[in-house]
Design brief:
Isopropylmalate Dehydrogenase, 2 domains, alpha/beta, 332 residues, globular
């Protein structure tokens, strides 16, 4: 009996000076990953070989350029698209480097191009360093913004997803002082709708969505701010009129209590740390970051570059493996 063709899935190496290269090599060697898809690593072959040599990890034998995806043998265990972005031996693990930011961005661009062309069914990203991106002149602060811009998505948002807790975000890489001004009825409604649609696809039933207030006590009826009455509650009312099950706005300090999480599939958060703190407390090693609203599938780890342990062989691949499984599940 012939072996069924597996779907091709892109992995980006992330910042070469972080834990991304190690995590990607571990994922490419994982039997479960190879069974679920044909993983293709986008990044720098020289970095992969150096990390593989240091940590005794296998490097894919099949190496191609981005134009060689169509001819890739579907029976290959794994493959790598070598973008040759960095001179040999130039990466200093655990440090912020402009060249690494540029290499990470180039891998993301190439993987997005492959997904938009239909050469891969989705993109799974290893972590990048925002300071390195900035030094490289990349005009976007993070993955979510890069994918939104390069795919020309009309609307998008970040969803951190795990069986224990799921959070989506109205704002992400935004200064706290600017959050209030970026809360609009339409933006909050967009995030509620995107979250409800994604959770229904992942859970196989209508989603139950919770919404956080912005202010202490969710504003206490206007005593501590008007964002709830001005933007959050009208967005929730419109979502309900469209058939979405939505509750709140919940006071942020009580929004993630265990009994509330039992009846809520995902919580819409107003800013980055409002959701990231409880999520990483409960799901740091198993959570998945999904960008919603894109014309392609994109998932990622829920952690950073971990420069302090880069290239040392101690980083856990659990979140990356979960991101790969999630991408395969979401793939068309």
């Amino acid at each position: 009996m012939s072996r069924p063709t597996r779907q091709r899935l892109a992995l980006t190496m992330g910042d070469p000076a972080g834990v991304g290269p190690e995590l990607c090599l571990r994922a490419l060697a994982d039997a479960g990953v190879r069974q679920a898809c044909l993983p293709i690593l986008f990044g720098d072959l020289g970095v992969a070989r150096e990390v593989g040599r240091r940590l005794d990890l296998p490097v894919p034998e099949t190496v191609i350029d981005a134009q060689g995806l169509d001819a890739l043998d579907p029976s290959a265990g794994a493959a790598m698209v070598d973008l040759a972005s960095l001179p040999p031996g130039s990466v200093e693990p655990g440090t912020v480097q402009r060249a690494c930011g540029a290499a990470a961005f180039r891998a993301i661009e190439a993987a997005i191009g492959a997904a938009m062309a239909g050469d891969v069914v989705g993109v799974v990203t290893a972590p990048i360093n925002k300071e390195a991106l900035h030094l490289a002149g990349v005009p976007h602060p993070g993955h979510t913004e890069i994918f939104t811009a390069l795919t020309m998505a009309r609307r998008s948002c970040m969803l951190l997803c795990d069986d224990a807790i799921s959070c989506s975000f109205v704002t992400t890489h935004t200064a706290i002082a600017q959050v209030s001004g970026r809360l609009s009825v339409q933006r909050i409604l967009d995030v509620i709708e995107l979250t409800a649609d994604a959770l229904q696809r992942l859970r196989g039933r209508p989603a139950r969505i919770g919404v956080c207030g912005l202010n202490p006590h969710a504003g206490e009826h206007g005593l501590f701010g008007d964002e709830e009455a001005r933007a959050i509650e009208p967005a929730m009312a419109e979502a309900r009129s469209r058939g979405i099950q939505v509750e709140g706005p919940f006071p942020p300090d009580a929004a993630f209590l265990p009994k509330l999480r039992e009846r809520i599939d995902a919580t819409v958060c107003m800013y980055h740390d409002q959701g990231h703190i409880p999520f990483k407390m409960l799901a740091f090693d198993s959570g998945v970051n999904i960008t919603l609203g894109l014309p392609i599938v994109r998932t990622s780890v829920d952690h950073g570059t971990a420069f302090d342990i880069a290239w040392q062989g101690t980083a856990s691949p659990s979140s990356l493996l979960a991101a790969i499984r999630c991408a395969v599940r979401l793939a068309p």
